[in-house]
Write a structure and sequence with these properties.
Alpha-D-Glucose-1,6-Bisphosphate, Chain A, domain 4, six-stranded antiparallel beta sheet, 3 helices
């Protein structure tokens, strides 16, 4: 359920603490192009990114196609795996930044804060969906 929640980007603004807008520009079975607007470092930013989804390994790779200054490149991956007690979700980023150590330090802090927001929001959403599914488990379908 968690991987599918991340896959469905059109709902991100409802489940992420940072995404304001997400639009799927192209939609392939395992690859897509998205236009998103997010809050980063207290500012609203928009970008386009590519995603490659690997459901078999629970991984979603992403890369901005038009990084916002001071970024020269920005990407990463989400990984979703079943643990002993529940689902384990990790997010990693890779980037290249113009502006030296100060810009890099600021970006690392911003990414860390963003990761916490996104992971907390995803956890709340997944718990809510799981509860909703349990509540309606075995419910009769609406007749045609």
């Amino acid at each position: 359920m968690v991987f599918e929640t991340l896959r469905e980007s059109t709902h991100w603004r409802n489940i992420s603490g940072l995404t304001v807008y997400a639009e799927r520009i192209t939609d392939g079975a395992d690859d897509d192009l998205l236009r998103i607007s997010t809050v980063m470092g207290g500012e609203l930013n928009s970008c386009t990114l590519t995603r490659t989804l690997d459901a078999g390994n629970g991984t979603i790779y992403f890369q901005q196609t038009d990084p916002i200054e001071p970024l020269l490149a920005f990407g990463g991956e989400w990984t979703v795996a079943e643990g002993e007690v529940g689902t384990i979700v990790t997010i990693q980023h890779d980037f290249d930044v113009d502006g030296g150590a100060d810009a890099s330090s600021w970006l690392l802090q911003t990414i860390d804060e963003g990761n916490r927001w996104e992971l907390d929001a995803l956890k709340l959403t997944a718990e809510w969906l799981a509860g909703l599914l349990r509540t309606h488990e075995g419910a009769s379908a609406i007749p045609d």
